[in-house]
Amino acid sequence: MGKTYLASAVFLPVLTAYALASSAAETLATVEVRNPLEFRQRDAAVELTFASLGLEDGAASAGELVLLAGAAALPVQAYDSDLDGADDTLLTVVDLEPAASLNLQVVLDPELAARQSFPQRTQAVLSHKQGGKWEGRKYIGGDWVDVAELSPPPQHTDHSEYIRFEGPGMESDRVAYRVYLDERNGFDIFGKRGSEPVLQQVGLDGFSSYHEPADWGLDILKVGASLGIGGYGYWQDGKALRVSELEGWTARVIENGPLQSKLGIHYDKWKVDGRTLDLHSTLSMRAGSELVRVQLQTSEPLDNLVAGLVKHEGTELITGEMEVTGDAFTYLATWGEQSLDGGKLGMAIFFHRRDLVALEEDEHNQVVVLEPRGTQLEYYFLAAWDGSNRGIRTQEQFEAWLQNVAETLTIEPRVRVRSSFADKQKQFPVDSEAALHWAQRMADSEISRHGSQLAWGGWDEMRERPSNWEYSTGLLMQAYDSLGLALGMPQYSKIAESVVGSYIAENGDIHSYDMQKFNIDSVNSGKMLLRLYRRTGDERYRKAAATLREQLEHQPRLDNGAYWHKQRYPYQLWLDGVYMGMPFLAEYSLAFEQGASLDEAINEFLVSRDALRDPETGLYWHALDEKKQQVWADPQSGRSKYFWARGLGWLAMALVDTLELIPQEQAEQRQVLVDMTRSLASTLLKYQADSGSWYQILDMPDAPGNYREASASSMFTYMLAKGVNLGVLPGEYKAAAIKAYEGLLRDFVEPRPDGSVSLTHNCAVAGLGFGRDGSYHYYMSERVVADDPKGLAPFIFASIETAKLLE
Predict the structure, then answer these.
(1) Which residue has the higher pLDDT, 18 or 274?
(2) How many other C-beta atoms are found inside a 10 Å radius of the C-beta of residue 140?
(3) Rounded Cα gap, residues 231 and 187, in angstroms
(4) β-strand pairing of 72-74 with 127-130
(5) Beta partners for residue 256, in sequence order
(6) What is the Cα–Cα distance from 479 to 118, expressed in whole angstroms?
(7) Separation of first and last alpha carbons in the chain
(8) What whole-number distance in Å separates Cα of residue 281 and Cα of residue 289?
């Protein structure tokens, strides 16, 4: 798994020996932090939620918690991530060697924590004059006073000399920025020559003194009529409109900590695009980084928001890679002699590729036009000045650094937490009652978190878009329904029916469904339609299921007879599609066609086996391009290059779910799937981790960034347990299934003090094409999230089948 290092001594505070801890100290958790990248990361941020540590929100502070690397304490900051008034997250920064691990220990010890001392490496400042008076547009006299919140009076405008350096400022030990809190709404840069905090002294010796060189540095950017560096606005008629026509501003210092500082700015009644709405921004910086994270939220949806860089003559425009996966970060940057001191200055905006509408420019700005996700938008900006201590002096160095920054934003450190709180709740060996208990807790937790948001007209928080007829919706609702049946508790089935039923119109039409896309993913939720029709006799469900069957009737096919995955993925067979379509096709055919299409369903398994199974390992590649033209396809075979776990997980579930449907007397048809199931089960055990779970890329456990992944591990566990329960797998697989299920509990199930549980370490999504090149790097670049329906549902399925196995 790569080398394991302790934190570099240069970043250790005064405290060096944990042996001095008090007798009341309590070990809360152990933490493994892995660098998924093959370059060194300095000051990599690591966040640990209180819930993952077994603490309730607000139950502890940085004044009580100690974070240890070996015997040395690391700097920590507790903060309130959701701004509800209670600290809920512990932050540290660490050095990570290339592809290496760092082991930490979290200890609750107020006595020891009180003796810790950490340098202030970030700062947020908001300061204005008090004790003077307004004379026209100028504020005369008075003294500078730092405040936590400020709403400038109506007479305030640019250069009123009322707010120190004209707005709120924020800095790290790398650079400082300021925001004009007036109608300009530009973002400016203070170049820092050293790493010590400076904003507490800037502007005290004269309102504009920071324009002159000083020991600490100076103002280095000419903003003028532009957005400055990373400023936001609206793109209209070929121009970037600043946030200027509004009723007022309120700025607030949210955090002012040693490792993180944060500002909030509220723009009241912004008039834009013929509308009036509120805009709220949150700006945050962390120790050791030039980056500012910008989070925007509007009171109603507003497309075409922009982030901009001032346009100066004689600079080079630089763009990052655009052929990347949607949630990966890329950038727009400039480099050249654009610093006010005549030096070299680089500026960049980092944004999710998925959010990009266009790269544009106007008279004053280079801009990125971005589409918010609902009412929210996130991006970052940074500056690199050749007079700072970063050491970037050339465009070549700047561009190499930008690429590394994009990588670190896209692929975050892999963090695993094992808390004593969670360990006490997990009892081994697992029995049948416990397996059902975990399934019910997981379902109850997700229902509490998200309710029926997946219903038609809702907002899908996981996908950050309006809820649609998605395969994952049907998957999770089928899990709820199965749990209701297993427990004899119909309330779960009622939730499933209410969500799936919300998409079905009185005439059987399916809201948000478009047959002409020939998206085989859309067929998966049809399994719930068949359940609901059997249970209720409601013709709406039968008609809607018939529509999905009609799609398969017309779905384009490869030469080998397999279905195209989607119209936009022509000539491609994906393992995912076998699960999405074949259990539904088999069930529908048995219900309404006297089984006439069973051979067609079984053929999909056969061609998938013949096209995608590797005879050497027994594993299956993710996909096939019949034309051998896709960037991800091997030019000789047309296959993708890696064994992606969840792709194979879809096939594993499809096998046992389809086998369950085919009557025993149809032995010849069953035998094809029985043989595939037994072969795959045997293969999977060869690649199972010692803990019982499986890796994101199955055959590369030691590769940098690879991780044990929850959704695929749940799918494989489900297949093994159900295979034994169906009599398809021999009895000796029972022990393997139990080991796999206990692995799910150990590796991924996170009980929380509020009684809820989460399923951690799910790959959010993975596909091929449209910026997804199928490389190992690609599979590592997709987000790793908690509580994705693609993991929750298989976990519930696996729990139900394991409970049966243990009866």
Answers:
(1) 274
(2) 12
(3) 5
(4) unpaired
(5) 261
(6) 48
(7) 37
(8) 20
Whether the ω angle into residue 429 lies within 30 degrees of 0, i.e. cis, is: yes
Alpha helix locations (H) across 71-188? Answer: 110-113
Which residue do the tokens 């933490």 mark? 31
pLDDT single digits (tens) 422-443 = 999 999 999 999 999 999 999 9
In what order do the strands lie in the sheet containing 77-79? 41-49, 89-96, 77-79
Phi, psi (degrees; rounded to nearest 5) at 599: -60, -35
Cα–Cα distance, 717 to 737 (Å, whole number):
6
Pairing, β 365-370 against β 376-385? unpaired
What's the one-letter identity of residue 364? H
Q: Which residue has the tokens 């055959």?
A: 699
* Residue 24 pLDDT grade (very low, low, confident, very high; cuts 50, 70, 90): low
Give the pLDDT score at 6.
32
Rg (CA), the chain: 29
> Among 273, 276, 277, 275, which Cα is nearest to 241's?
273
Q: What is the DSSP letter of 455?
A: S
CA distance 774 to 407: 17
Please state, for a pLDDT cut of 70, what percent of the chain lies above it. 97
Burial of 702 (0-12, 13-18, 19+ CB in 10 A): exposed
Overall pTM > 0.70: yes
Which pLDDT tens digit goes with each residue over 585-626?
999 999 999 999 999 999 999 999 999 999 999 999 999 999
- Mind giving me the DSSP string for 693-711? --BSBTT-TTSTT--B-HH
User: What does the H/E/C string look like for 664-684?
Assistant: CCCHHHHHHHHHHHHHHHHHH
Structure tokens at 452: 């029926």
Specify the amino acid at residue 321. E
Structure tokens at 762: 């799910």
DSSP letters for 550-563: HHHHH--B-TTSPB
Per the CB < 8 A criterion, the answer to whether 552 and 504 are in contact is no
Residues 33 and 476: their CA atoms lie apart, in Å, by 31
Q: Which tokens is 417 given?
A: 């937490």
Cis before 789 (ω within 30): no
Helices of type H across 764-788: 776-781
Please report which residue ranges of 687-762 form alpha helices under DSSP H. Answer: 710-725, 733-747
Residue 522 CB burial class (10 angstroms; 0-12, 13-18, ≥19):
buried
